[in-house]
Amino acid sequence: MGASEIPPEIIEAILDATKPDSLNLDVGTLASASLINIPWHIISRHMLFGTVYIRPETVLRFVDLFALPKVTLPDFVRALVIQRKQQPDTGHVDCEILDQLAPVTTKLPHLRTLRLYNIDWSARKSIAYDSLRPYHSVTALELYHTKLSDLAQLVDVISLFPVLEELTFIYLTMITNMNALPSDAALHGRGVPVTLRRFTLVGPRVSVIESVMEWISGTLDGVDIPLEYLKLGGTGFRATKSVRRLLQGAGSHLRELVLHPTSGPFYPGWNNPDVAPTLLDLSANDQLRIISFEGAMQPIFCDAMLQILSQVTSLSLEEVSIPSVVPAASKWGKTIEALRERPSFVNLTKFTTNRNPIKDFDWPREY
Fold first, then answer.
1. Which of 133, 231, 285, 361 could pair covalently with 254 via S-S, beta carbons 3.0-4.6 A apart?
2. In the prediction, which pLDDT does 200 show?
3. pLDDT in tens, 149-200
4. Ramachandran area for residue 41 (φ above 0: left; ψ -120 to 50: alpha; else beta)
């Protein structure tokens, strides 16, 4: 069979291991494959240019290239990643970079993912609506180390993405009243996309995490967000009433839950054993398939963790991961084995104890 006779599905499977989004990052191999023939060329271009990375020093070249009338690369772009300058730069990127990109973003008809690293919006009294409007069709927004002035500004940003299905906040910073952000009930639920299905929130500040949780768990006109995927973690994560509201609102829609509280190698992030079973009540999430409680906990929390797992009503569970106990306790292992006899756990294909309790939360690295 010649190269021209290989079905497109097989070509995609072959090239999938070399696309830039993979761990191999073998762009050279992918570029060479694009020269084989027309079918290989077409599929390779989709993979090569499906994700575009932009830095402050390259943004003008990107704008000039995509503004050319005969350039077809914009048709392949599905994800746009904006980063800070090459290492060792540790600063933030001024949000004006989005203004610079505005003229060409309308030429990205298939753009669905926007990933922003180290963007600083805090200096602006109001969000530059014109620079964000071209992204209205984006369905996945990921903000990493973003700096904002307050919760109201965050709400203004998210309101410009009405069809979001996936929203990610990693180490979000709010400079106004950082240590004691006020709870503004008027903002709760405002601007939260009703289309949202996947939500990730990880951060180091308790006040920021709780402020965002109160916002997204708030409801407008009694409409809950039917999340299918929920991931919460970081040193700022705590089990609170906002978490309970989010779980109850997700109800039977929730399929995967990941909780990863961290604080330090000797002070595990799982705490408040007296209230955690109430705040992490999973009885309403009766279609859960994956539960991942990561990190580590002290022996005092073992009974609370058992209560949380005992409340699970889903008969669709496939994977369960529980925290390690620091220090290790043999009694904990025996108790977990007994828990596996419950009806909710009989169909499990994977049941593990987290073996790297001090590992921090992972997120996509910059390139």
1. 285
2. 96
3. 888 889 889 988 999 999 999 999 888 754 444 456 778 888 889 899 999 9
4. alpha
Is the separation of the CB atoms in 172 and 141 below 8 Å?
no
pTM for the predicted model, two decimal places: 0.84
What's the CA gap between 15 and 233, in Å, rounded? 34
Helices (H), ranges, 200-349: 206-217, 241-250, 276-279, 302-310, 330-339
Task: Yes or no: say if 154 and 179 are a contact pair by the CB < 8 Å rule.
Answer: no
Question: Rounded distance, CA 338 to CA 221, Å?
Answer: 44
Contact 236, 206 (CB under 8 A): yes
Q: Which of 159, 139, 87 is nearest to 117 (CA)?
A: 87
Structure tokens at 107: 């030429």
As to burial, measured by CB atoms within 10 angstroms (0-12 exposed, 13-18 middle, 19+ buried), residue 52 is: buried
